Amino acid sequence: MSLSDSLHRYAAIALRASQTAEPHYEDPLLRSTHAGVPLRDLTPSFWGCFDWHSAVHSHWTMLRILGIGTSPTLEAELAAALDYALDASSIETEARSIEDAPGFETPYGLAWVLMLDAELHLSTRTEATGWGEALEPLTRLAVRRLGEWLGELEQPDEVGLHRNTAFSLGLMHDWAAVTQDGLTEIVRESALAWWSQPGARSLLDEPGPHDFLSPALSIADLLRRVVEPEPFARFLDDLLPSLGRDLPRFIPVDCPDPTNGRLSHLQGLNLSRAWMLRATAGALPPNDQRIPGLVAAADDHLVVGDAAVTGEHFTGAHWLPTFATLAQSFRLT
Questions:
Q1: Residue 290 and residue 205: Cα distance in Å, rounded?
Q2: For burial by CB atoms within 10 Å, which of 4, 63, 116, 127 has the most?
Q3: Which of 31-35, 67-71, 129-133, 286-290 has the lowest average pLDDT?
Q4: Distances (CA, A) of 75 to 57, 59, 148, 330
């Protein structure tokens, strides 16, 4: 299957999921302050998918694929969906609802708001400026909440799930790099404070039973953003000292039951590994001997991860297209 066919598939699945209201996880932080209010009255922009953060990043997926290109018919459908969600009145309502729910989707979901805003800054579509202006109340709230979260965080969380600190810091850094925001330096300082001496790990000790992120690769993926190639190579020596030996045995994981929401995380793990492995390879000095193994492992994980993005089960359909799009995007760079 060609890359364009894969991207078309991802966008179509993301579009359908973003317009599917049930089943949906109602976050208790939001519900505790808005009991009895219909969800679409609280979050009229990002109400689809199984959860709020997936609805947000599904719109990032649609926007990213619009920028790469797809069929005229699907392009029109994606643009209409973005136009509906990125409506100024709806976003203002959404921001007010979240303002009343401290801690809501922090850090993961709010970091994806920043990624959506960054993609709007990068987009060449004529509608993107207006969409970005509409999103601004939610972007401002996300920047403030994430800044407060980071300022209060005493130790990073290194699990392979949503609360992984390094992953959200990486998204925050990418937004700040696009928007020229001073958050880049804050992220850099935090990353170096926590992981400049990371302690040795092995990829073969992963994953946990429900991981969709690699804890070790998430750290590497963050550090490659904030240090130059030579010091990054030395950092990787410390973080993953047996990386060269481990890569041939670092194979894609099998999902025993794609209808199970937690187990389906393993399908996304293959995709996040794919882009993190390739990004790690791209950040090393060009003569680093680990690069071929990293790229080969990334390709193996992408093949398996891509095959899982079918839309057959909503457990994966509501979020896997985003991870697949990221994995393919790194393949293009």
A1: 19
A2: 116
A3: 31-35
A4: 17, 13, 38, 22
For residue 34, what pLDDT is reported?
85
CB neighbours of residue 231 within 10 Å: 12
Q: What percent of the chain has pLDDT over 70?
A: 99
Structure token pair of residue 119: 């993609």
Three-class secondary structure assignment of 86-147: CCHHHHHHHHHHHHCCCCCCCCHHHHHHHHHHHHHHHCCCCCHHHHHHHHHHHHHHHHHHHH
d(CA 246, CA 106): 34
Q: What is the DSSP letter of 208?
A: P
Structure tokens that stand for 324 in this block = 């697949």
Tell me what pLDDT residue 31 has. Answer: 85
**pTM, full prediction:** 0.97
Residue 206 DSSP symbol: P
Distance CA 226, CA 61 (A): 25
C-alpha dist (Å) from residue 32 to 115, 265, 333: 27, 27, 44
- Rounded-to-integer distance, Cα 189 and Cα 91, Å: 32
**pLDDT computed for residue 332 by the predictor:** 67
pLDDT of residue 26: 85
- pLDDT one-digit tens code per residue, 246-287: 999 999 999 999 999 999 999 999 999 999 999 999 999 999
The CA-atom distances, in angstroms, between 58 and each of 68, 100, 119, 326, 333 are 15, 24, 12, 12, 21
d(CA 258, CA 33): 34
Pick from 296, 299, 305, 297: which is nearest to 331 by CA?
Answer: 299
Cβ atoms of 91 and 146 closer than 8 Å: no
Q: What is the mean pLDDT of the chain?
A: 96
Q: Which helix (H) or strand (E) holds 148?
A: helix 128-152
What's the Rg (C-alpha) of the chain?
19
d(CA 265, CA 84): 29
